[in-house]
Amino acid sequence: MFLRTISHNLTSNLRPTAFLRSFSISPFLTSKPLPPRPKINDTDLTVSYLKGSGPGGQKINKTNSAVQLIHKPTGLVVKSQATRSRSQNEKIARQLLADRIEQLDKGDQSRAAIKADRARKKKASKLKKTRRKYRDLEKDQDHEELPEHEDGEASEDHQELVTEETPTPSIPEDSTPKAK
Amino acid sequence: MPRITNRAILKAHRQHPLLPLLLRECRSHISAKNELRWLRDRALSMVSARENGRSPDAPLGWRSLLRSMCHSRSRGVPLQYILGDQPFGDLEILCERGVLVPRAETESITLRAAGLILDAIRKQGHSQGRMGQRTRNLRIVDLCTGTGCIALLMHALLAPHINRLSILGIDLSPMALELANKNLAHNVRLGSLSKRALKEVYFEQGNVLARGLGGAGILQESQTSIPNAAGYCDVLISNPPYISPRAFRDGTTSRSVRIFEPKLALVPTIASSGISINLDRQEDIFYYHIISLSFEASAKLVVLECGDRLQAERVRNISRTLAHRYGSGALSIDIWACSSDPFAHGGISLNDEPCAVVLRRTDIDTE
Asked: Which residues of B187-200 are buried (b: 16+ CB within 10 A; e: fewer)?
């Protein structure tokens, strides 16, 4: 993703596109680009720093950096206290709020929903691939095992396996009646 | 301070055995949990950094490191001294014992002041028909700079919009100056400050209260070493010591601050002031000196952090009388409340919250 955006920026700024394109190795993941990140107007927001009332400043060294955003038109409230930095918390809260508002607004067509949908699809196809792979492997094993029985070496291997396995059933034969 | 209930302690202990220790200083469950998370992250990163560096001298694993951190926090050591830094805007300000930790209120005042400067420049640019692009130097002086946080954040905010800046931070304490220079280098290394900052931000020793030299003693003294500096400054910003000796003792100043942070940066002392003024309040001494300094240096914008609303009113009166004495022209005085949300306390901003007094000279053309 990152490589792709870099190459995109370079190609848009500079002329020799054919040369620069060779730097981008990663294939295009999706055909359609994601919709742009949603933005909110500053005028719609009430930003408050939740630090508790009372004296502060030099008198008290408060470590609370929680930021709360209220979106006035929808009444949505988002709070972030992930980091020690207020500006960082505000950025995080803004992003969260913008995502949520877009989801309310557009539903399935919102950026967050599309992203989640893509992630889900990717996971599903991955699962599908692994399932197919193991199914094929099993099939191959079955195919290989059939001719192996005719081979001498393979049968010896099997015999070893059998001899290893034989003691285990023999113990329960003695012990099971006593245990029961 | 209300006692923490047994139930709260038990609840905290159930979540993490170290949480009750942090509760002693934080007093609330949520902030204790946040601090534990930050301490834990730091302990983990410190241990992993040490393992990469392969220095065998520190025997602690991250768990014991975290435990010792929590114990010192429970004794009241400021979190920033334990972790060694504090975010300030987009900067990372290093903190050391002996230098005041930057406060969130100072951060919001600095952001707002920078916004004001940028607005003024934009307006000026429009009136000049986008000609100027400000070729002249904008000179900012930060008195009582401490960690250098205000000076550095100002540079970070203004440098993208102003071609030439010169920012001077002045402090009495050599320890603070050393740390401020360290912070400058640290943030340039991190990339949160541009390389220009190394040339445009200075820190120098000076005593705001010692004005026996006559006139703008500190400013003139330091100007000699600064190239391109004329005998003025455009913006004067300061977070001076503003706690009264009484408020330092009577419990309004928290124990942690009282014990672990430098008193020099908190309570103004009469002994160090050169001239005797008939001020009834010791905590206002710095404002008196800084405001007269600003008139002598003909600063166009002065931003001063104050402890509470009453102090801000007193500072407003001081600046009025001084403006009269210096015969300066039109002066607009505003008081900014620090909490940017006026609805938090039912529309009334609390009287004991810090605020800022802002003086703007309207008579001088900002050209």
From this structure: bbeeebbeeebeeb
Spatial distance between the Cα atoms of B112 and B99, rounded to a whole number of angstroms: 24
CA B247/CA B354 separation, integer angstroms: 14
Nearest chain B residue (CA) to A60: B254
Find, among B17, B24, B21, B20, the residue nearest to B2 by Cα: B24
Spell out the residues 6+ positions from residue A141 whose beta carbon is closer than 8 angstroms to its own.
none
Residue closest to B42 by CA, chosen among B73, B83, B74:
B83
Identity of residue B183 = N
Predicted complex ipTM exceeds 0.90:
no
Q: Does A57 touch chain B (CB under 8 A)?
A: yes
Q: Do the Cβ atoms of B91 and B192 come closer than 8 Å?
A: yes
Sheet strands (E) in B127-239: 138-143, 165-171, 201-205, 235-238
Q: Quick check: B253 and A59 CB within 8 A?
A: yes
Structure tokens at B312: 């801000």
For tokens 């534990």, what's the residue?
Answer: B36
The two three-digit tokens of residue B289, written as one number: 């000196």
Tokens linked to A92 = 């995080």
Tokens of residue A68, six digits: 């709360």
CB atoms A85 and B87 under 8 Å: yes
Strand partners, B335: B357
Q: What pLDDT was estimated at residue B361?
A: 86
**Residue among B157, B352, B355, B357 with most chain A CBs within 10 A, to mutate:** B352
Which pairing describes strands B85-88 and B91-94: parallel, antiparallel, or unpaired? antiparallel
A93-137 pLDDT, tens per residue?
Answer: 998 998 888 888 888 888 888 888 999 999 999 999 999 999 999
Exposure string of B332-352, with b = 16+ CB inside 10 Å and e = fewer, is ebeebbbbeeeebeeeeeeeb
Instruction: Verify whether the Cβ–Cβ distance B353 to A58 is below 8 Å.
Output: no
Tell me the per-residue pLDDT of B67-119, one tens digit each, with 9 for 90 and over.
999 999 999 999 999 999 999 999 999 999 999 999 999 999 999 999 999 99
Q: Which domains does chain B have, with CATH numbers?
A: 6-75 (no CATH), 104-361 (3.40.50.150)
Q: Do B266 and A63 lie within an 8 Å CB cutoff? A: no
CA atoms within 13 A on the CB side of B112: 21
Using alpha carbons, list the distances in angstroms from residue B170 to B105, B138, B178, B218, B243. 20, 17, 12, 9, 20
pTM for the full predicted model: 0.78
